[in-house]
Design brief:
Helix content is 83%, strand content 0%. By secondary structure, the protein is mostly helical. The relative contact order is 0.16. The mean pLDDT is 92.
Length: 125
């Protein structure tokens, strides 16, 4: 349970980075909301990887490149799920991009990110 709580704190920090970048790219650069969301997701993913490796799963004994590759594979699925969710909620449900991103990111974090990071990316060998 402790690891799950730490993973959620890490997810919250990464989400803050993600949302901040998304909003800045969308509003200041006047780009498409889905493109802004993808940019935010990339920055949040990098943040989440290092917090997960160093604090949540304390997995510093495994090779950084090995974990990085596993994280990238898992994160690619995360990017697809988040982008698709945001797209669908904006274009078909008519939600504001921030609301679409919040709903999608919570769903993906609990249903996909935590299980795959625990069982695949940072698993104890």
């Amino acid at each position: 349970m402790k690891v799950f709580l730490k993973a959620n704190v890490a997810s919250l920090v990464a989400s803050l980075v993600d949302y901040l970048i998304t909003i800045l790219v969308k509003e200041l650069l006047q780009t498409d909301a889905v493109l802004a969301s993808i940019t935010g997701t990339i920055c949040g993913g990098i943040t989440n990887f290092f917090i997960g490796r160093n604090w949540v799963f304390n997995a510093k004994t495994s090779s950084l490149s090995h974990q990085g590759w596993r994280y990238f594979v898992a994160w690619a699925g995360n990017l697809v799920l988040n982008s698709l969710g945001v797209y669908l909620l904006i274009h078909f449900a008519g939600l504001h991009y921030v609301a679409a991103k919040i709903i999608t990111s919570i769903t993906v974090a609990v249903g996909y990110n935590y299980p795959i990071q625990k069982r695949y990316v940072f698993k104890n060998n």
